[in-house]
UniProtKB/TrEMBL annotation:
CDD domains for the chain: AKR_AKR9A_9B (cd19080)
GO CC terms: cytosol
Xref: InterPro entries: AKR_Detox_Biosynth (IPR050523), NAD(P)_OxRdtase_dom_sf (IPR036812), NADP_OxRdtase_dom (IPR023210)
Gene Ontology terms for molecular function: oxidoreductase activity
Chain ranges of the NADP-dependent oxidoreductase domain: 15-308
Keyword field contains Oxidoreductase: yes
Cited Pfam families: Aldo_ket_red
Name of protein: Aldo/keto reductase
Keyword Oxidoreductase among record annotations: yes
Keywords: Oxidoreductase
Length: 336
């Protein structure tokens, strides 16, 4: 496993992040404590050093399990958790990005994780009713108190992140150094605004869902791979999803790797700032995902995969590209 700094920070993070949303058996199929411990061991042996969880994952069980499996080796990992999602749906102040929920959520997470600080504290979702100034100042207070080292944000419009970091720069507050977004061959929307913003402003990108909710793992595209039941029953997939999965399966066969490795390698290779988040329910699944770091996709394979997505940037990116030669003439910079 290779390492890069998380965005413009000096924090060294492995190229793949271990997602702990599957840690725990509450609320659906997940991994029990012994399997979670083995998965962490496998991840660490591969050189991985960052774990991602949230206050609400598995009704809190994920944080509790992470805290248990990290005992005795906490300092060797970059530990991140998130807040925003409700801790108590009967309490109107138990959710959101305001100061009160941030404080209560952080204290709860610290107790569950059995630590006195988190390395990266993520805003889980944009809260349209809380002023971004309040959120940034409250996050900065947590950093100054030593309970948080760095801050990041997930699932948020690019203009909000840009405004937040501008305010942080003006006021001397801790800026966001990381961005969490969904990114896969099936969902490339972040290429329009969010990914260019992250590259420009110096944010590391933790990409969740690189397997497209399991669609790109091969479980539906391989012969006999249709799996009944659950949110992603093979029979409920769209024609586009089936077609994309088949292309991933074909490319994987040609390269002698697995479909999951192709999907993860593609996401990781799109930008130097991207760190795919890999989650699994077993050591075998995780081992397969981690092997993606050794997969180098040929340019022809990348082109074939991307052509199959049918993705277009849309306005304004496509319009600017189409009109640039007319607008700038001989002043046009090559490659732009």
């Amino acid at each position: 496993m290779r390492y890069r700094t998380l965005g413009a920070s000096g924090l060294r993070v492995s190229e793949l992040i271990l997602g702990a949303m599957t840690f725990g058996e509450q609320g659906g199929v997940g991994a029990p404590l012994p399997e979670c411990r083995r998965m962490l061991d496998v991840y660490a042996e591969a050189g991985g050093n960052m774990i991602d969880t949230a206050v609400n994952y598995r009704d809190g069980a994920s944080e509790e399990i992470v805290g248990r499996v990290l005992e005795g080796r906490r300092e060797s990992f970059v530990l991140g958790t998130k807040y925003t999602v409700s801790r108590d749906r009967a309490d109107p102040n138990a959710a959101g990005n305001h100061r009160k929920n941030l404080r209560a959520s952080l204290e709860l997470s610290l107790r569950r994780l059995r630590t006195d600080y988190v390395d990266v504290y993520w805003v889980h979702l944009w809260d349209r009713d809380t002023p971004v100034e309040e959120t940034m100042r409250a996050l900065d207070d947590a950093v100054r108190a030593g309970k948080v080292l760095y801050v990041g944000i997930s699932d948020c419009p690019a203009w909000v992140v840009s405004r937040a970091n501008t305010l942080a720069q003006w006021h001397g507050w801790s800026p966001f150094v990381g961005l969490q977004v969904p990114y896969s061959l099936l969902q490339r929307d972040v290429e329009r605004e969010l990914l260019p913003m992250a590259e420009s402003l110096g944010l590391g990108v933790a990409a969740w869902g690189p397997l497209g909710g399991g669609v790109l793992s091969g479980k539906y595209s391989r012969p006999g791979g249709r799996v009944a039941g659950g949110r992603l029953d093979g029979g409920s997939l769209s024609a586009r999803e089936h077609a994309m999965a088949r292309v991933v399966w074909e490319v994987a066969g040609e390269l002698g790797v697995t479909p999951a490795q192709v999907a993860i390698a593609w996401a990781a290779g799109r930008s130097e700032v991207i760190h795919p988040i890999v989650g699994a329910r077993s050591v075998e699944q995780l081992g397969d995902d981690l092997a993606a770091v050794d997969v180098v996709l040929p340019a022809a394979s990348v082109a074939r995969l991307e052509e199959a997505t049918g993705f277009v940037l849309g306005f304004p990116a496509d319009f600017i590209a189409q009109t640039s030669s007319w607008v700038f003439g001989s002043a046009l910079v090559a490659g732009r």
